[in-house]
Design brief:
CATH class: Mainly Alpha
Number of strands: 3
Structural class: alpha+beta
Strand order of the largest sheet: 1-3-2
Strand content: 5-15%
Number of domains: 1
Radius of gyration: 14 Å
CATH architecture: Orthogonal Bundle
CATH topology: Arc Repressor Mutant, subunit A
Helix content: 25-40%
Largest sheet: 3 strands, antiparallel
Distance between the termini: 33 Å
Oligomer: single chain
Number of helices: 4
Order of helices and strands: EHHEEHH
């Protein structure tokens, strides 16, 4: 029997800045400023204005800097830049130059 080696977890999610900000209780501008200063993980740049965060990277930052518990990801909301957060894998992002 062939073992299924493809798994999809919440850490594979890419999340819009608005949802990250809501999860942290801060503004999207503050998240972007923190990223620019190096105080928060950098976003994936998927176009000129499109910036998304890889949940696994945010999770690692959270557990290193804030708490060993899982990152408290807020539910998606209509005002998010992407209501349906696309799923991505580290390998897939690496293949398109986002690593």
């Amino acid at each position: 029997m062939k073992k299924n080696t493809t798994t999809e977890t919440t850490s594979d999610l890419v999340i819009p800045v608005e949802r990250i900000a809501r999860s942290l209780g801060i503004s999207a501008r503050t998240v972007k400023d923190m990223s620019a200063r190096g105080d928060f993980p950098p976003p994936l740049k998927l176009g000129v204005h499109k910036k998304l965060y890889l949940l696994s990277t945010v999770q690692a930052w959270w557990q290193e800097h804030v708490s060993p518990s899982p990152f408290p990801l807020a539910p998606a909301a209509p005002d998010d830049d992407d209501q349906e957060s696309p799923r991505a894998t580290a390998a897939g992002l690496s293949a398109i130059g986002h690593n």
